[in-house]
User: Which sequence fits this backbone?
């Protein structure tokens, strides 16, 4: 197995292991983070219904106006964390379960989580 396929395989395994433990309910939904090379996405999901309650990303219209085209990735992740916290508050969600999506709690993932905590989410 080449290096890239091995990394993808290990990410899938970590993601499945985390999803086995983390489950979002109606009272405490799951905050999922997906990180690509250019963008970062966050969703608040109720797993009992299988519905997305709120979502935000660097591609959101609210952030496209604010973020410059050459924005630093960590500062963009902080903006997304603040936006997802605000949208969750609008849906009367105060606490969530954090799903880092198999990624390390480091860098952009940690920046998004800390900004969401500053925005009022508890996890």
Assistant:
């Amino acid at each position: 197995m080449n290096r890239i396929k091995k990394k993808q395989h290990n990410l899938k395994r970590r993601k499945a292991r985390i999803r086995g433990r983390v489950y979002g309910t109606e009272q405490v939904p799951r905050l999922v983070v997906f990180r690509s090379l250019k963008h970062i996405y966050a969703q608040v999901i109720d797993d009992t219904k299988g519905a997305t309650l709120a979502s935000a990303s660097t591609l959101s219209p609210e952030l496209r106006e604010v973020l410059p085209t050459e924005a630093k990735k960590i500062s963009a992740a902080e903006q997304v964390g603040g936006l997802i916290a605000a949208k969750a508050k609008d849906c009367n969600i105060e606490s969530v379960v954090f799903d880092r999506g198999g990624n390390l709690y480091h860098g952009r993932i940690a920046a998004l989580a800390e900004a969401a905590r500053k925005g009022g989410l508890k996890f």
User: Anything to note?
Assistant: The chain has one domain: 3-118. The radius of gyration is 14 Å. The beta strands are 30-35, 40-46, 51-57, 97-99.
